[in-house]
Structures are given as C-alpha cells and as structure tokens.
Amino acid sequence: MISFVMNSSCMFSRYFAVPMIMKSVLTRIIFLTLLFSLVAALSGTALYTATLDRTKSEMPGLVYGVSTAIILLFSLASFCIYLNLIPKIRHSLFYCLLSFFALPVLTALFLFTTPLLSEEIFLCMVTCMPFFGMLAYQFFRFKKMLTQ
Question: CA–CA distance from 55 to each of 60, 62, 123 (Å)?
Fold first, then answer.
C-alpha cells in the first residue's frame, strides 16, 4: 500500500514538478486582478449611475451588486490559470493564452448576450474592461517572468 502511494506521487510529480512559488504567483495574479477590477468597475459604475435619473430607478444600489457578481464570476472563470502549473501549457504561448482568457471570454460572451444585460451595454463595458485589461497586463507580466 505504501509503495502504491509513493509510485502515484512520483507519477504526478512528473506533470506538476513546479515549486510552490509558481502556485503563489498564479494565486497572486487572480487576487490582484480581482481586487483591481472590483475597484475600477465599482468606481466606473458609480460614475455611470451618477449620470442617470434616480427618480426612474426603483433600486439604484442593485447595479453595484450585479457589477460585483459579474467580477466575481469572471474571477472564478479565471481559475484555469492554474493549468500553467503543467510545463507543456506554461511554455506554449497559445496554450498559456487560452488558460488565461478562454473561460473568462466565454463567460463574458454568455453573460452579455443575454437579453437583460444587453440593454445596458455601457454598464457591461464598465464592468468588463477593467477585468480583461488587468488580466492582459498580468498575462504579459507572467510571460516576461517565465523568460527571465
């Protein structure tokens, strides 16, 4: 039984032979992207709602909750970043790009093509652009870190 456990751990160590530093870097990327995009999106939402007529709105604070939920959903979708622990994905530009952007972009396309959110396209852009901008910045930083 003990030899089976040791052999299985050796089998996985071939694919995930990455120091804990790489895991912490990827976790930091997700956390910083979440934090920056929340601050930027909520600030943009505050500027956007300041221009609206508040007498027409029944629940003016609901916009902040929806914006926060969308950013949290994008952050959950970006957990594919951990696929970069596999060396084949980490060293391929195309696979690395897919691991960063594929699921968040598909989530954005799904969310913003729904009839309820397609009416407020500017609000969707205010929510979406900070997240993808910060994720792109983190992607380029990650690739630069790998080349050093």
Answer: 9, 15, 19
Which alpha helices (H) appear in 82-120, and where do they start and end? 87-91, 93-112, 115-118
d(CA 10, CA 4): 10
Cβ-contact 66, 140 below 8 angstroms: no
9 within domain boundaries: no
With a CB cutoff of 8 Å and minimum separation 6, the contacts of 52 are 60
Summarize pLDDT for 82-103 with one digit per residue, the tens: 999 888 998 999 999 999 999 9
Instruction: Summarize pLDDT for 36-59 with one digit per residue, the tens.
Output: 999 999 998 888 877 766 656 666
Q: How many structural domains comprise the chain?
A: 1
Residue 97 placed within a domain: yes
Residue 12 lies in a domain: no
